[in-house]
């Protein structure tokens, strides 16, 4: 089996010949290819080159193409900083008052330079690898997360508690869904094999499960439907301990859940193993970046043993792998997956 076939088997609920590996390693890939994050985000050829070199070096099965977590935010007018050696970031919203939602027109993210670069980078990777390597086109933020960026995190949390303006909260979420769905549609035209989004502010570390079900869940479900209308499987990522909402995450209709290392793997395994593909969930910092190769092997083997009764599994870190990660640690993780029986 090649990489595409291994991961496709996981989605089909069939046993691959070896444990499939998909790395969330865009920062490390760019650095190893010799590019700053500024060079990487500014040039789709360098985005593609980073992953091509990384796959050819480590021989893993699936590419997760990521750029940052503020591209959609920038596309809808949120102020964004672009550091030379770090992913782009934002620390304030563009809607200082919830009433400003009334003045929003329909978004058009296709005109934003960094959306274009991201999509073109994915297309170039697909052109190079074809169906040899499984290609996951990440599409940045789910609607709840994007709304949080547009309002600013603190204002957004207060908005959720303000019954008087609840209609404007949902109006903003509708706007953000339109932006997210546009990115999904653009990504679907690249030839990628699946799409995904992150919705980390929707996790239990920031809002209650009941608030998740009311404000985030309906829009995640709509995004999943958008992906399925484009005939692509979908993956949902939420950071932190998601034990309290895993059931709801699956109920969105998502084909895969990418879970942070903070979630108890035994709980995740019990809930997910027969229902949805599990992607994860080695600690990206404490183990993969800062641990020894021996620790990486130990933690990888422990995870694989827990999931040895289900083919619906793809090995990955629980979140983005830091660029300082030693190559020996990545090789150790992949080596365990290749030898595991």
Helix and strand arrangement:
Blueprint lengths: L2 H10 L9 E2 L2 H7 L4 H6 L1 H15 L3 E4 L5 H5 L37 H17 L4 E8 L1 H9 L1 H8 L5 H23 L5 E5 L10 H21 L4 E5 L7 H6 L4 E4 L5 H8 L4 E6 L1 H6 L3 H14 L6 E5 L9 H13 L2
Parallel strand pairs: 1-2, 2-3, 3-4, 4-5, 5-6, 6-7, 7-8
Helix-strand pattern: HEHHHEHHEHHHEHEHEHEHHEH
Computed structural class: alpha/beta
Overall pLDDT confidence: 97
Residue ranges: pLDDT <50 for 5 or more in a row?
none
Oligomer: single chain
* Name of the CATH architecture of the domain at 18-233 and 240-253: Alpha-Beta Barrel
Number of strands: 8
* Neighbour order of strands in the largest sheet: 1-2-3-4-5-6-7-8
Largest sheet: 8 strands, parallel
Rg, Å, rounded: 19 Å
Query: Percent of residues in beta strands?
Result: 5-15%
Total helical elements = 15
Per the principal axes of the C-alpha atoms, what is the gross shape? globular
For the termini, the CA-CA separation is 16 Å
